[in-house]
């Protein structure tokens, strides 16, 4: 995925999301998204109470070269196609000693959790990793983080796990055949996501009261 590319997808509940590479210029969007995380979600991401992001943390999170340190951001477009608020990030950092392995992290704002966005971001991140010669992911997970465990096994049912420093360390293998199938599916998704009627419906839903918008979404 080139740094200028983005893809549009619909989640199972009809929500339209746009995924693109994160850029250093996304600082304000990153900070705004962090404010939408609950204390529990922040703890699961950083393994420590994190009431705010320090300057050092922000610099590390945005220190991306597109090859060894890469991140994808998900945003919910306004009116179906205009850039909107950030709702999730998935990133990898290549292992300095093993260039085919990378450590990953995924963050989804609380009101978007449980809707399939995490799985989508992880699949897209795997695509980007395979394109860059990475075929194994490593993830450090708190033992009670069941949603993250589910994402891992959905990506690789044969993922291995061991315990280290009170955390679970998972290793996943990325498969090229699944990568090609997702490329084929993505092209079909574009025709659905870019349908003018879909743009209009998304725009109407964002302008209506919550319950009315939810009712319209369920009928699509």
Could you characterize what this model shows?
Strands 1-2-3-4-5-6-8-7 form an eight-stranded mixed β-sheet, sandwiched between helices. The protein is 40% helix and 24% strand. It starts with 6 loop residues before the first strand and ends with a helix. The chain has eight helices and eight strands, in the order ββαααβββαβαββααα. Helix 4 (117-131) packs across helix 5. The protein has helices spanning 27-34, 39-46, 55-61, 117-131, 146-155, 176-193, 196-207, 210-218; strands at residues 7-10, 16-21, 69-75, 86-94, 101-108, 136-141, 160-164, 167-173. It is of the alpha+beta class and 220 residues long. Mean pLDDT is 82; it is low at 184-194 and 196-220. A hairpin with a 5-residue loop joins strand 1 and strand 2 (16-21). The relative contact order is 0.14.
Features:
8 helices; alpha+beta; eight-stranded mixed sheet; globular; about 220 residues; disordered C terminus
In short:
The protein has 220 residues and is of the alpha+beta class.
Spatial separation of the terminal alpha carbons: 30 Å
Largest sheet: 8 strands, mixed
Q: Over the alpha carbons, how many angstroms does the gyration radius reach?
A: 17 Å
Q: How would you state the average pLDDT, rounded? A: 82
Strand line-up in the sheet with most strands: 1-2-3-4-5-6-8-7
Q: Structural class from helices and strands?
A: alpha+beta
Tell me the total number of β-strands.
Answer: 8
Order of helical and strand elements: EEHHHEEEHEHEEHHH
Which parts are unreliable, with pLDDT below 50 for 5 consecutive residues or more?
Answer: 184-194, 196-220
Q: Could you say which overall geometry the principal axes of the C-alpha atoms support?
A: globular
What is the overall number of helices? Answer: 8
Please give the share of residues in helix: 25-40%
Strand content: 15-25%
